[in-house]
Amino acid sequence: MLKISPTRIRLNQDSLKWLKQKKVEVPENAYAVEHILIPKFKEYTEMFTFKDRQDLRLTQQKNHVNKITKEKEIQLREYDYIKRFDDYKKIEEIRQKTISPSGEEKKEIWRFYHPKDNSTVRFSRNDGQKEVNNYIHSDGIYTDKNGLKIRPISTAEYYNKRQDLDDKHFVNAPWTLKESITTKDKCGTDSVQECTVVGIYGDKGLSLNHLNPNNKANEDFRYIEWELLEQLEQQGKNAKAFVIGSCEEDYFSNRQFENIIDLFATEKVPFSSYKTGDKVLYGPFKRDTRIGSADAKKFRYGGATPIEWQSGQHIIYENGEIQLANPVIDAELKKGNTNPKELVKKSFTKINT
């Protein structure tokens, strides 16, 4: 079979004029375009791949043309990298749009997760109706005595889900009551270390709080108590709660966690508590965010997906279940341990349900 190689064309006034005539859009920061024409008897395919000065793909347009009917199908791709200027050149996301001859559009998204240990790259491909991925999955859901459902997932899967959450559905730093949300949709938070996550669920969906014990805004527990009591009232008489995170070594962390579970016990609210604790937080969670470390350099230059360096409990709440990711679950899944009950129990020092 005859091999057809692409022709590399430097972008200048003449080539830009030629591309305009071809009705091909040139992306910002493009330095050159690779052009290839694949002829067949009744059809041909013409492809334009734009690259920057680092020779990284920016966009790609593929035109599939029927010579007889002149009908054209157009496929457009956009590429995003963890760090576009680095030496690793790792693709994080590809967005594809296919336009049929009738003008109908179909969109797909590929997302890639690059582990810092250079093991298998994880990916997902989603066309809006179905997702295909190569994540390592647990065997399902662990349901505790309080009815709380927890599904262990990999950090790669968490990161994929996290990217679909906007600010209204994600509790982010600085982790005070101001960032708390109430929603019936999918929501989440991550990097729960000394912090405590409090979820109250009922008639209004889920009220999600992520509280940093060392933030001065969270010093006076009375304000936290008032807010949680108000959320309980909003969620109705059948409201339940869960409490996740914290450790014993940090005094303020431990005090905040204990105050919260004491409040629920006093108010006779059914709740589950999952304390990460010192043994897990300062042991298997292995914080790799020290400035100046080899791992920090690797992160800075795009050697792996950034969430890998955010240790702690990562949480997505969806369809009435907690989807939990953390370094312990990642390590166990890689070993072949997919038992959801075991994965949850290994993720915490103390569990009360």
What is the overall shape?
A: elongated
Distance between the termini: 66 Å
Biggest beta-sheet profile: 9 strands, antiparallel
Kindly state the percentage of residues in helix. Answer: 10-25%
Number of helices: 8
Cα radius of gyration in angstroms: 25 Å
Question: What structural class is derived from the secondary structure elements?
Answer: alpha+beta
Structure description:
It contains eight helices and 21 strands. The chain has helices spanning 13-21, 155-162, 221-235, 251-266, 277-281, 294-300, 327-335, 340-346; strands spanning 7-10, 32-39, 43-51, 57-66, 72-81, 91-99, 105-113, 122-126, 131-133, 142-143, 149-152, 170-171, 181-183, 187-192, 196-202, 205-211, 240-245, 271-275, 313-318, 321-325, 350-352. The strands form three sheets. A nine-stranded antiparallel beta sheet has the order 1-2-3-4-5-6-7-8-9, with helices on one face. Strands 10-11-20-19-14-12 form a six-stranded mixed beta sheet. It has a six-stranded mixed beta sheet with strand order 13-16-15-17-18-21, with helices on one face. Strand 17 (240-245), helix 4 (251-266) and strand 18 (271-275) form a beta-alpha-beta unit.
What's the structural blueprint in terms of helices and strands?
Blueprint: E1 7-10, H1 13-21, E2 32-39, E3 43-51, E4 57-66, E5 72-81, E6 91-99, E7 105-113, E8 122-126, E9 131-133, E10 142-143, E11 149-152, H2 155-162, E12 170-171, E13 181-183, E14 187-192, E15 196-202, E16 205-211, H3 221-235, E17 240-245, H4 251-266, E18 271-275, H5 277-281, H6 294-300, E19 313-318, E20 321-325, H7 327-335, H8 340-346, E21 350-352
